[in-house]
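Predict the 3D structure for this chain.
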Amino acid sequence: MGLFDRRRAAALPRTVKDAVPLASGERVLSGVADDTTGGWVVATTYHLAFVSPEGELQWIRPWHEAEAGTWQADASLLTVTWVDRRVRPGQWRITEPTTLQQTLRERLQASVVTADEFRTPGRKTVRVVIRQDLGEGVLREQVVAPRGVEVTDPEVAAEVARRLARLRHEVGL
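Done. Predicted structure below.
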């Protein structure tokens, strides 16, 4: 595809649009079918959602709950990881032209107000983040620690507290 070619996304079926509840001021930005399940990944101004092939809403999550998104072009695989590591990452095979990857990046960035990170004694990176719930406008604090890092460890907890205090001060909380 050339640099100036336009990627035309297929229109979302009416049953998919109707399955995603929209708050006042919220609109659908992008959506695409998952080739593996036949379901639909739908991005709105405030949420990311998944709708089954039958048109039933399977889940909907606000953008501030998504940690990151990665696109593997060679495998046509989009993966979204969540701040809550207990929730399994979303993973979809997408071969149709779509703006979902760009929308994902933009919405994730829009939800981050400020962030900081530090390395633990075990050389793992912990992120402290203040994010905005894009639907409610509320600021939320998050601590994103990799597997094997206990945020209740006194040394880690103290550093998290210091970093969050600084971030709170920066944003006027």
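The CA atoms of residues 162 and 169 lie 11 Å apart.
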